[in-house]
């Protein structure tokens, strides 16, 4: 892939998995850190085996139910167990890293993975992480400044200097005495950079559009997703970039079984349902964000796991899920990648292996005609 920029336009819709990771058993003290790591690497191996397109690893530092402080280490480990699936972070939390060091780790991952690396970045959303690192309310500004430095390291030969509010980067010119500075990405001009957003007029998605980076929408209603695309596209066009839906990744949980009834029961009684009923749904309600999931037409008191299973998630047999994905794709105007969260291991991990197998072997071929849209 060296020197090649891949145009994903008019390519079929792709499928990706985000290892958050959801680790309620670890939070309860019944799983170890090693168990969490092993499960995420197993998910990556299955995704590679069953023909999915991408696997991402999150970064969190203080969340006991989502333990993943070093996505770059997970990417490196997964690269040794997979051969074709793209591997990335969603995302590197830029305010919690020196951007010079982070940029060089990103470059090294690009080479280590043979050009399969995807550079997702984010400001960091959890107050306890910000408290730990002492960033206060500065995360959004730190993300923008850090990205300026990262992009300069990716693309700009020295000498140059950036004197920022939070960091200084002083790139020397090339010296034959040290044979450097020398590192540049394998993918040119650099790995794809992703930025995530949740609010309808997400400032992070607007920043992604301004910079020409790829948007990632978190798990929200179709109405909110439509606003996401409008926010991103407007900022991209204003900055002289061409927004392409093929680069848009949207999040929606997916679960497959051989029958609709089996899939519904496995979600209601399994780890995906558990994390939504115990963590995600209470968090949305506590923050007053229930309408982001259900839209304006569903009262928040009616928002429950059963409603999500029957009206929001993409759950069922391969035939049913293929139809639901096609309808969802049309409803929001088209997207390039469907991103789903990987549940915890649970008591019957083979049901999730089977879900990924059905997605890759039966759903993806049924949707081979589906392209991103304009």
TrEMBL record:
InterPro entries: Bact_Lucif_Oxidored, Luciferase-like_dom, Luciferase-like_sf. Pfam families: Bac_luciferase (PF00296). GO terms for cellular component: cytosol. One of its GO terms (molecular function) is oxidoreductase activity, acting on paired donors, with incorporation or reduction of molecular oxygen. The keyword Magnesium does not apply. Keywords: Flavoprotein, Monooxygenase, Oxidoreductase. Residues 40-330 form the Luciferase-like domain. Signal peptide: none annotated. Transmembrane segments: none annotated. Belongs to the bacterial luciferase oxidoreductase family. This is Alkanesulfonate monooxygenase SsuD/methylene tetrahydromethanopterin reductase-like flavin-dependent oxidoreductase (Luciferase family).
């Amino acid at each position: 892939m060296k020197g090649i920029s891949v145009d994903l336009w008019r390519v079929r819709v792709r499928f990706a998995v985000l290892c958050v990771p959801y680790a309620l058993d670890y939070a309860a003290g019944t799983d170890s850190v090693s168990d969490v790591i092993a499960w995420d690497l197993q998910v990556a191996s299955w995704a590679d085996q069953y023909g999915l397109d991408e696997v991402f690893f999150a970064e969190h530092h203080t969340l006991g139910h989502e333990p993943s402080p070093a996505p770059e280490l997970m990417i490196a480990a997964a690269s040794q167990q997979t051969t074709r699936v793209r591997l990335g972070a969603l995302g590197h939390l830029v305010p919690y890293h020196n951007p010079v060091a982070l940029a060089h780790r990103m470059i090294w991952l690009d080479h280590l993975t043979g050009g399969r690396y995807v550079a997702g970045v984010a400001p960091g959303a959890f107050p306890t992480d910000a408290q730990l690192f002492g960033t206060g309310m500065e995360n959004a500004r730190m993300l923008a400044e850090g990205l300026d430095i990262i992009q300069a390291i990716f693309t700009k030969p020295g000498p140059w200097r950036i004197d920022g509010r939070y960091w200084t980067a002083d790139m020397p010119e090339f010296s034959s005495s040290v044979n450097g500075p020398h590192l540049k990405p394998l993918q040119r001009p650099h790995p794809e950079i992703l930025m995530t957003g949740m609010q309808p007029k997400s400032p992070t998605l607007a920043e992604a559009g301004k910079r020409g980076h790829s948007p990632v929408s978190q798990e929200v209603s179709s109405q909110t997703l439509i606003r996401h695309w409008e926010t991103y596209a407007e900022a991209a066009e204003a900055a002289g970039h061409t927004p392409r839906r093929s680069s848009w990744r949207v999040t929606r949980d997916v679960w497959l079984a051989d029958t609709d009834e089996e899939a519904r029961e496995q979600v209601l009684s399994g780890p995906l349902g558990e994390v939504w009923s115990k963590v995600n749904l209470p968090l949305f309600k506590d923050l007053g964000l229930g309408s982001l999931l259900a839209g304006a037409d569903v009262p928040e008191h009616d928002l429950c796991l059963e409603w999500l299973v029957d009206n929001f998630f993409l759950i069922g047999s391969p035939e049913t899920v293929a139809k639901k994905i096609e309808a969802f794709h049309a409803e929001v105007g088209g997207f390039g990648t469907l991103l789903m969260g990987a549940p915890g291991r649970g008591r019957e991990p083979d049901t999730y292996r089977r879900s990924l197998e059905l997605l890759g072997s039966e759903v993806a071929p049924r949707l081979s005609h589906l392209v991103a849209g304009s």
